[in-house]
Amino acid sequence: MSQHYRVGADIGGTFTDLIVVDSRTGAFHIGKTLTTVDDPSLAVEKVLREVLDSAGIPAQKLRHLIHGTTLVTNAIIERKGAKTALLTTQGFRDSIEISRETRYDLYDLMLEQSRPLVPRYLRFEVPQRTLVDGSTHTELDETKVAALAKELAEHGIEAVAVTFLHSFSNPEAERRAANIVREVAPALRVSVSSDVVPEIREVERASTTIANVYVQELVETYLRQLEDRLEGLGFAGNFYMMLSSGGIATVDTAVRYPVRLLESGPAAGALAANAYGVAAGHEDLISFDMGGTTAKICVIDRGQPLIAPEFEVDRIYRFAKGSGLPIKLPVIELIEIGTGGGSIAHIDSLGLLKAGPESAGASPGPVCYGRGGEQPTITDANLILGYLDPGYFLGGQMILDLEGARQAVQQQIATPLDLSTEEAAWGIHQIANENMANAARVHALERGKDPRRFPLFAFGGAGPVHAYRIAHSLGSPMLIAPLGAGVMSTIGFLTAPLAFDFVRSWVTELKTIDWSKVNHLFAEMEAEGRELLTSSGVAQDEVTHQRQVDMRYVGQGHEIRIRLPGDNLDTTEAGPLRARFEKVYRELYERSGPAVEVEILNWRVVSAGPSPKVQLAVETLPANTLPGKTLSGKTPPGKTPPGKTLAGKTLAGKTLSDETLAGDVGTAQDARKGTRLAYFPESGGFVETTVFDRYRLAPTMTFCGPAIVEERESTVVIGPDATCRIDRHHNLVVDMPS
Q1: Number of helices (H) and strands (E), helices first, in the chain?
Q2: Cα dist. 234→58, 60, 227 in Å?
Q3: Domain boundary at 195, 219, 243, which?
């Protein structure tokens, strides 16, 4: 039986989303279900089984399943990982707690710092010392390591992180210590920093290594359990995991480096936004992904999501850099805000209305879900405002309780603030909008980007409901909402190549570089990448390598990443490399740097297989046909009139043919479902608003706001005076009023 279907599965804090795509025809089927918090693999199995049964697809025909999860992030935030110890160089026991000795808020006298994953009583010093040049100053005390390993095992410790000073320049002491631990206490899991992140900066390296081993058992247990569930369905294809950097890896690689899964779900959303944007001719975008628990914002610049060399997890304050645990790994650069459909609205101690970051999650969920929730949420407010149809949530699979939502908002928000229920609901909605718009503005400006020139690309279950107001607040010229916005992250999984990144730290000034050593470093990393990818099924001639370096002016504290050519390098590269560095420096800081020497800290290689060609066939439903409970890219046989078929939608940069668009596609009135009262304060409050069926809107159709556009997994709310059109790629494009 030929395997030609690919699956993307995303576990969020509230919903689990899934897409199944036929790689031959582009036909696709999507599903969405509430996340099963106690066992997330159960929701994946449930929604996959439902979609396969509905579409009549045997599990044996599935070739790939690519998955992303919030499991690692949640385990660290909730401190649910293994009981972990740290072995470190003598004299450096407290370095992870001292950290960089910075205060993320200078004026907060009650400042809290994020707690290390390893408490002080489980941090142990080992006599040994490696110098920065890799030479050994003090030999490893192997007897001490063996005694510690025996004692740790006897006291129920489950995992050990080994991080010695300067191990990035000579890993032998770390490797020997790890081998001793495994020999003495084979049940202990061990991670060494020279394997997880062989990079300069001791605190970040130690924190990352600890996080890796802290969640390793949890991740392996989950992934093996999910493998068993998939096998029970008859799945015999390849199972991959999305990495925070935007590549995918095998389960075995993910189990070895679980810390690389921290931002796997949000990364997929940014990849999907990037793919859709490039295909539609918009290489500059602000990606806005709002689900049930959080909102994620990413800048797409020149057809690429920005990549950060490090990030933080478990921040005490969500917007305060320095308040979380540092993770020294590449990640698609985005900001995550505690604002989602399930974010709880409340009145704080000063009597001010707030929305989030606490969330009702999937269980019990918003009050309107009728699953026991008692605190009003953003979704409850949106329902009261008329933005959501209580009978068409998830295509009618969930009937929302409007009266319950009204009572919760009235009793807990409106009455204490002396507002009407509608005014309170609007306040909740607009506070959420301003929180997200402010975060997007700061995120863009800190990266030297003007949000006023970036269209807003909105997706996620709740994103299109709020996107119009956010785009208006940012001054964005355009709002773009794709078809299937509610499960857009799952498409991002299918656009990612098998990829992994490697790094070596070697600090040297540009003018004195030993280029033969440089070529040796790159060759070594590229060989590792080639071996890893070919063992994962990539043909050797399909493996590509991208070289990068981290550069800075001598004396600066931080560096800038610059690309390098893939050929053997020599002294002729020094001049062009400095010129590229200075160009990027000026773009970032709007000024030239000081007249000092430039140095390189880190040498990097990103090894990748070929990027998949994802092509989705989109067909417009005839006016008298409603989609079923599982949205399919194919309409019922024989029911699509000539000239109304939109086949060949692609994420690979191709466009729909003129022949496809030929014929009478009708007008937007053909997609009209009816009207309902929705709240638009600039129009005086509740106004009769046209509701459109997303599946009947075809390219070239236009209409004006105010309007509501509904599909099974999400709803687009469009304010007055906006003009809307469906583009050649079936995206809903809203030209924002000036």
Answers
A1: 18, 37
A2: 8, 6, 11
A3: 219
Collapsed DSSP state (helix, strand, coil) of residue 620: coil
The number of distinct structural domains making up the chain is: 3
Say yes or no: 414 and 522 in one domain: no
- Domain annotation covers residue 233: no
Compute φ and ψ for 675, nearest 5 degrees.
-135, 160
DSSP reduced 3-state for 3: coil
608, 626, 661 - which closes a domain? 608
The whole-angstrom separation of Cα 332 and Cα 435 is 22
Q: Give the rounded percent of residues in the chain with a pLDDT score beyond 90.
A: 60
Per-residue pLDDT of 572-624, as tens digits, reads: 889 999 999 999 998 888 888 899 999 999 999 999 999 887 766 665 544 43
Sign, Cα dihedral of 649, 15, 396, 689: negative
The predicted model scores a pTM of: 0.82
Average pLDDT over residues 173-184: 97
SS3 at position 301: strand
Q: Do 423 and 527 fall within a single domain?
A: no
Burial of 36 (0-12, 13-18, 19+ CB in 10 A): middle
Tell me what percent of the chain is helix, strand and coil, each rounded to the nearest 5: 35, 25, 40
Length of the chain: 738
Which helix H or strand E contains 529, and what residues bound it?
Answer: helix 515-535
In a domain, 573, yes or no: yes
Paired residues of 499 in beta bridges: 608
Q: Which whole number is the average pLDDT over 347-369?
A: 87
In this predicted model, what pLDDT tens digit does every residue of 528-575 receive, in sequence order?
999 999 988 889 999 999 999 999 999 888 889 999 987 888 888 899
Domain containing 87 equals: 80-219
Greater model confidence, 396 or 165 = 165
- Once rounded to an integer, what is the mean pLDDT over residues 491-516? 91
- The tens digit of pLDDT for each residue in 599-608 reads 999 999 999 9
Q: Are residues 402 and 527 in the same domain?
A: no
CATH number at residue 181: 3.40.1360
Indicate whether 215 belongs to any domain: yes
Structure tokens at 156: 């129920």
Answer whether residue 632 shows pLDDT above 60: no
CA torsion 319-325-330-336 (nearest 10°) is: -30
Closest residue by Cα to residue 57 from 29, 96, 88 = 29
Higher per-residue confidence, 384 vs 491: 384
CA atoms within 13 A on the CB side of 338: 17
Does a structural domain hold residue 140?
yes
DSSP string covering 475-514: T-SEEEE-TTGGGHHHHHHHHPPBEEEEEEEEEEEGGG--
Dist. CA 552–CA 560, nearest whole Å: 6
Mean pLDDT score across all residues of the chain: 87
CA distances from 296 to 269, 319, 339, 474 (A): 9, 13, 9, 16
Cβ 47 vs Cβ 31: under 8 Å: yes
- Please write the tens of the pLDDT for every residue from 85-112: 999 999 999 999 988 778 888 888 888 8
**What letter does residue 309 receive in the DSSP assignment?**
S
- Rounded alpha-carbon distances, angstroms, from residue 382 to 391, 402, 487, 491: 14, 10, 20, 26
Residue 75: pLDDT band by 50, 70, 90 thresholds?
confident
Using an 8 Å Cβ cutoff, are 189 and 259 in contact? no
Residues 246 and 624: their CA atoms lie apart, in Å, by: 41
One-letter amino acid at 500 equals F
Which of 292, 736, 711, 246 minimizes the C-alpha distance to 485? 711
* pLDDT of residue 649 exceeding 60: no
